Amino acid sequence: MSIDENLAVSRHLSVIYADDLRQEIDGKITIIGMYQSQMLVESFPVTLPKLAVFITAVTPVAQPFGKVSLQILKDDYVLQGLDLDLANEEAVGPSTIQEGVGTREFNIATIISPLQLDGPCNLRVRWHTELGIISGRPLMIKAASNGSAQ
């Protein structure tokens, strides 16, 4: 395989956790306070006024999404769930073709407000499809060891 060959496009899920999301007049989304792999809080229990989650699900054009189920979980507890029928092309939006590879994507933004946390936990997103589950990256929430929370 040469270095310039495209890798096969597969279904995948991108998840951004942030303090807030704002829809701008020009259609852009502003992400406020994005977390990387972890969120540090001063101590538990803690109530977050809000947590924004921006999710992008991508699939090859040749393998469109049909009926899907989205879950946002705190450990094994479902915080939010949504069933969608994405068989209709307009529901997913236009396809993108880059270097001969066509994909379709579906974006969803949601706010969890308030979010009560009794102890350290992991937040994660699962996208249930007819072919199986696609998981997004988790957000680990824990107490700051030196008392300085981010």
Please give a handful of descriptors for the protein shown.
5-stranded antiparallel sheet; Inclusion body protein; 13 strands; Immunoglobulin-like; mainly beta; single chain; 6-stranded mixed sheet
In a few lines, what is going on in this structure?
The chain is about 5% helix and about 60% strand. It is mostly beta strands and about 150 residues long.
Order of helices and strands: EEEEEEEHEEEEEE
Rough outline:
globular
Low-confidence stretches: none
Oligomer: single chain
- Nearest-integer average pLDDT: 87
Protein name: Inclusion body protein
Organism: Paraburkholderia hospita
Structural notes for this entry:
The chain is an all-beta fold and 150 residues long. It has a single domain (12-142), classed as Immunoglobulins (Immunoglobulin-like). It has one helix and 13 strands; from the N terminus they run E-E-E-E-E-E-E-H-E-E-E-E-E-E. It has one helix at residues 89-92; strands spanning 12-23, 29-35, 38-41, 46-48, 51-60, 67-74, 77-85, 96-98, 101-112, 115-117, 121-129, 132-135, 139-143. The strands form three sheets. Strands 3, 6, 7, 11, 12 and 13 form a six-stranded mixed β-sheet that branches. The protein is globular, with a radius of gyration of 17 Å. The termini are far apart. The relative contact order is 0.28. This is Inclusion body protein. It comes from Paraburkholderia hospita.
Layout of strands and helices, then pairs:
Blueprint: E1 12-23, E2 29-35, E3 38-41, E4 46-48, E5 51-60, E6 67-74, E7 77-85, H1 89-92, E8 96-98, E9 101-112, E10 115-117, E11 121-129, E12 132-135, E13 139-143
Parallel strand pairs: 3-13
Antiparallel strand pairs: 1-2, 1-5, 4-10, 5-9, 6-7, 6-11, 8-9, 11-12, 11-13
